[in-house]
Fold this protein.
Amino acid sequence: MYDDAARKVDPWEVDQRARCDHFGKHPTKKASRAGLERWKVLADIVMEWLRSDGTDDAAAEIASNQLADFDTVTRDLIGSWFTGVRRVIHPDDGELDSDPVRPRVTDEAGGRYLTVPLIFALDGESGREEVRLVTGSRGTTPLEAAIFYSDGEEDVELFDMRASSGELTPIDPPEHGPALIEEMFEQDATLAAEPKGPPSPGLHCFLCPSAMRCGEYPLISDGSPRASTRTVTLSRSNISDLTRCERRVAWQKVHGIPKEDEREGYGSSVGSTVHEIIAAHLSGSSPKDALDAARQTCPPDQWSEIAYLFDQHLVLWDQHPALKVIAVEREIGFGGMMDDPHESGDGAVVMIGRPDANGWESETTAAVVEWRTGNVAEPYPLESEFYAVAAWEKIKAMGRALDQVAVHHHFLRPETPLCERRIFSELELIKAKKALAEAGRTALSWDPNDPSQPPYTVGDWCTTCPFENRCKRHRGDSELQSAGNEIRQIR
Ligand code: SF4
Ligand code: SF4
């Protein structure tokens, strides 16, 4: 028997704590747990179907019954996953074990354990197949595979089943499984103690439940967050997107609707390389060294464009001799308490962004600098406002005096590169805060249980939206047929 007092080690959390050992230490309540709930509903549907006679009618009836109380977007999503799953497994494939024993590895002292959740197993003619149902982007990791195969049973195979496509991916034992397990226990032991230094911000902050309480992002309103405060975390680009289409942000940040694709192309790869070279230059490398380092890994067909954009940066940079950079690509932001119409208590919104650089123009003027490598000719909506407030609040929290914040946008693409500089005085900052608070209130207004509710606005921006196809199916006039009908159509 297992020791019930043993502590479960969550590798994902350990991984995040390796980036910031304050991660998750003082959490507030998640914006929504919709992703996990949808996964559970799908697992129930699949299990019921595997116990059924396996006919299309049975599948349609199960889906209709189980999804009857959900909104149209959730029905569409889970219905399409069920369709994907049914493409590859059928009740005739083997005898269902709907509660397989979870593989579990304990540490030497027996006080901690690692485990892998399985969903079901099918005992068929060719042996036993154990299946993990994948509805997000992440499948079984090498560590999870090591845990799974740690009991040494050889006649069992593990599969990831990607619900969106029905694709089955066999998971083989990793090469150094026992070492991976040992490393994870060691890393956990190192990080389980109280945090050793100050919080260490980074991209992991966007996933961290402690952003309202760790002190890295100053609180700019009255009230104080508690563990029960529902919190929405918005990125700088979410704030800009929100001014165009609420649904896009709500689906990403509150409802966790899976993205269709990342839509990254040639342009974004050139842009990120140029940003990397500029970051290296501002962090102390000479322009030549920064360029030479990037050239090693850059695709040759992109090089002349990259070199041109970096030269444009140097032209503009020479025009700013007084600008002193303090940090490059470091997250800044703030949090605010506000009414949550969906909870009995307060809610909170944290806004976090990663300016390309920030520092000082003069003793009392803070500066934020963004570089633009594409064809855009102006800052994104609310972008300058966000950076100005974030820089101001950060500096105030550090106890240093300042009069104003300058937000620079350096547009590198035009033949004559352009610096647009906007000054935020205290009065401008008050206006900026009001606009940002409005964005925060909007984010808390979305019902976390109903992704069909946030309004959508169609425009040019839809071409870069990761939800475009699903969104089109839910625009009122072409409302999706019931999940049951969709399921009937696949066979
Ligand atoms: S929000 Fe960022 S800095 Fe704060 S605890 Fe979380 S990971 Fe660390
Ligand atoms: S496709 Fe357009 S309308 Fe739909 S969510 Fe995306 S941005 Fe909004």
Observations:
- The radius of gyration is 26 Å.
- The longest strand covers residues 127-134.
- The first helix runs from residue 11 to 19.
- The pocket of iron/sulfur cluster (ligand 1) is lined by residues 20, 22-23, 199-201, 204-205, 208, 210-211, 214, 216 (CB under 6 Å).
